[in-house]
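User: quick one, fold this
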Amino acid sequence: MKRKKTIFITGATGLVGCLLTMKALREGHSVRLLVRTSQGQSSEERIRLTLTMVGLPHDQWGQLRPDIEIYEGDIAEPQFGLSGDKWQQLADGLSATYHAAAFCGFQNHQAAQARAVNIGGTRNILNLAELSRAHLFHMSSAYIAGDTESRVFERELETPPRWKNPYEETKFLAEHHVHSHCRKNGLTYTVFRPAVLIGDSVHGRTIRFTSIYPYMKLFHQLSTRRKTSPVILEARPGASLNILPVDFAIGAIWDISQCPECEGRVFHITNPSPLKFAELISIAERLFGLRIELVDQSPSGKATSLSHYRPYMFGEPEFDVTNTRSLLRNYDAAFPELNESYFRKILNYAVDQNWGKHQFTTLPQEGGEQALTYTERYFEEFLMGKLHEQLVKDLKSLSAVVSITIHDGKTETWVLEIAQGTLGSVSRGPAPSECSFVMGAATFEEIARGRYQPQQAFFEGRVNIEGNMEKALQVATALTEFCKSYPFEPKDDGK
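Assistant:
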């Protein structure tokens, strides 16, 4: 049997830290988490909300909570702002530390905050490592090599001539402190350098909508406006962008960290065959129905460019993965295919979350009566009140059994039986149907409020249809008219 470990994780409300937390808990370990206080929300609520955003079912929190210790503090403060007793308590009995907290701002005015968190926070972690003697797993960045297109090896690097931004600089200096401090003080450590992490390969989930997401958001907005002229984008067609699904990255980090041979080594967690911008744009044109032209520089100044990302549009280093392959021999073969289907998945998730604005802010309380969600109220209260009524006037030719599946942290399915245009029954739970609609909660709510047509949602990739396509499109036409005639706007939901 595996020995249960006590693992300290920083950045547990960030993308890497929260997924490492979930991984450790599901592997049967206990975790200690450093969480900053936040006005109006307890540290426990922040952790629970974050884990829910990346897929933790509501009913599993109670099972995992006994294995979670929360320390309220700040990574940039000496001893994280903890008292001496709390600091010692945190260190006692630790098996390992995963240092994932980071400040990811790229802009020059954010340099002071980047130094405080990325450099100062790492120094504080090293002090804890001295006290606990626990193995340190440090999350660095593949981009610490700075402004170069040379091959970057998995070893301690020389100071580059220049960095593209404060993030690269402070992550380089933080990693340098880890190498030197651990060698000097006899501490065991491992360094991971992940590249650009985006939505997971299964659901497209993420809690960070940066890097490629601002461009996707822009393309999505332009596509909804039916833009016909080309979008001019500043980028080199042959340059690559090293992006990878976050679930694959976390799996690789976790598996390597279980190998004794990882001690004292650096591992690139990168895409072994990164996509070129020409390939990415070809996919984007199909996803969004746009014409996109790549130019090195727009003479008119009308090209699309986000200034802090622009340096990454014209070339990046090649990242050596010799160390990674030595411990994960199936690394290349297991890497998910980044095809149109995958990008549609992350696009659908981003749209459903309104690019981060629709993520969870409250959760149902454990025990006692729980308030119904908008979706539950729609099916269980509103639609139940429409039983045995004609959905759409003069639409007696439609008979169908249709299922509607909604993803909102958990997956719920409702089945509607329509006979000669009349709503015969509404039931909860999977059941045989002729066709099914699958969508996120935000998309469903827009449709139910009469603000978004089901056909449009389908053609924009926000609704997936399974089963009898002809029947599904007939149902979609009827639902469009129904939602337009009977928009569901609860009077007490504040919208």
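User: anything notable?
Assistant: The two ends are 52 Å apart (CA to CA).
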